Amino acid sequence: MRSVLFFICFMAVCFQAEAQFRTDTLMRLILADISDTNAQKIISDPEQYRVQIIYTQIDRNLKGEAKFTNHAFHVDPAYYFNPASMVKMPLAFLALEKLNEMNLPEVNLNTRMRFDSSFERQVAMDKDSSAADGYPSIAHFIKRALLISENDPYNRLYQFVSQQGANRKLTEKGYSSARITRQFMGYTDEQNRHTNGIAFINTTGREIHYQSPGYNTDSFNFPPPVRIGIGHINRNDELVQGSFDFTRHNNISLEDMQRMLQAIIEPESVPVKSRFNITEADRAFLLKYLSQYPSETTSPKYNDSIFYDSYVKFFFSDASKKIPAHIRVFNKVGWAYGFLTDVSYVRDTLNNIEYMLAATVYVNSDGIVNDSKYDEETVGFPFLKALGDKFYTYELSRKRKIQPKLNMFGINYDQRDPLDKKAAIRIADN
Predict the structure, then answer these.
(1) Are 136 and 113 in contact, with CB atoms under 8 Å apart?
(2) What is the end-to-end Cα distance of the chain in Å, rounded?
(3) Residue 39 has pLDDT above 80, yes or no
(4) By mean pLDDT, which of 8-17, 56-65, 76-85 is the weakest?
(5) For the chain, what is the mean pLDDT?
(6) Nearest to residue 249, comparing CAs of 185, 343, 179?
(7) pLDDT of residue 318
(8) Structural domain total, the chain
(9) Cβ-contact 148, 307 below 8 angstroms
(10) Per-residue pLDDT at 293 exceeds 90
(11) 12 in a structural domain
């Protein structure tokens, strides 16, 4: 047993040692200029904090066509971090793509749905009290997944797209690091391969399309063991000495996440194969809910003192909990096991600047994984805010050959109805 454990640890160390990190000169210069001591501590020890940062400059020509230029700090697509809720982003994109390719006249993103329980531990669903009409739909799942990063909507999108469908599609599009293996349900590997039967229902209750239960027959190409920490809490809530095994967990590199979001922000800026096959109306829907605030939304109606405007905008989250009206952040975040990640596109229509910023950091000073005791509030969130401040300030001073005239993509954001007396959601699984 000791020999086996030694071999696993040895292989994990060897795998990490083979990492090929990329750091660009510009990033060194920008990051060296951050005065925040917490941020400098993390930047000076990127291996301990498993930091990766991508800053993307956007320059437009006279036709308005955008050129995206990435600058990296300590970036390696093979260097593991847990994506957590970041996986909700590609599943939202793929769900709309699947609807578009199904091409069924009566089935769209707002069509009511029913989820059957088709395999052990699966959970049926035919109502959603947070929706205006009380029924689940792809549109409402995406709203909930993006607005405050709820977990069950991700599970339902996973069940609709399927484990097999998601991984095949992302591989075809060139997002080679992506490996979507699990729902947020505590399922075994085998249970995650099964997906529920799903019915689409019209407003009279008639079933108009049925998607049979699915099973993924494809195999996964898992990496060498990915083990992190000095101890972990197991399924029985017991402390186990030894690292936590992330090998079979979900995975997407920071580079692929950045490209996925770029493919929605500016589809023409990525290769055709890397784009998502969605309509312009679908893209407008995604842009809206990637950037809308919980306080603006009536359905779902979230308590905006708990789920404040910058709740899932890590680069702009501070004591005010507000973001200036001329700035919108189109993004997705993830946080779990001590990993914090944000992949954002920032558009400022007052100063006519736009850029992308993506970062991940690991903040778990006691080395115990899965104990819910992480340094998020004291170390992680302040670090990401310091990064956000620095790159926003840098963009304000950056000279462009052509100054763009930016708007908010013509998005009409929702407004909370002041007469709505419905109780606001205060607790959510996210």
Answers:
(1) yes
(2) 38
(3) yes
(4) 8-17
(5) 94
(6) 179
(7) 84
(8) 1
(9) yes
(10) yes
(11) no
The CATH number assigned to the domain holding 150 equals: 3.40.710.10
**Is residue 327 included in any domain, yes or no?**
yes
Q: What pLDDT shows up at residue 19?
A: 67
Q: What are phi and psi of 320, to 5 degrees?
A: -70, -25
Assess contact for 351 and 343: CB atoms under 8 A.
no
11 found inside a domain: no
Domain that holds residue 77: 21-397
Pairing of strands 239-241, 244-245: unpaired
Alpha-helix runs per DSSP H in 272-380:
280-291
pLDDT over 80 at 14, yes or no: no
pLDDT exceeds 80 at position 92: yes
Please provide the DSSP assignment of 180-220 as one string.
----SS---HHHHHEE--EEEE-TTS-EEEEEPPEE-----
Our CA dihedral for 210, 212, 218, 222, rounded to 10 degrees, sits at 80
Token output for 12: 């994990």
How many Cα atoms sit within 13 Å of 400 on the Cβ side?
20
pLDDT at 96 over 70: yes
Say how far apart CA 116 and CA 49 lie, in whole Å.
Answer: 42
d(CA 235, CA 397): 50
Report pLDDT for 11. 42
- Whether residue 42 lies inside any domain: the answer is yes
Looking at the DSSP bridge assignments, the partners of residue 59 are 67
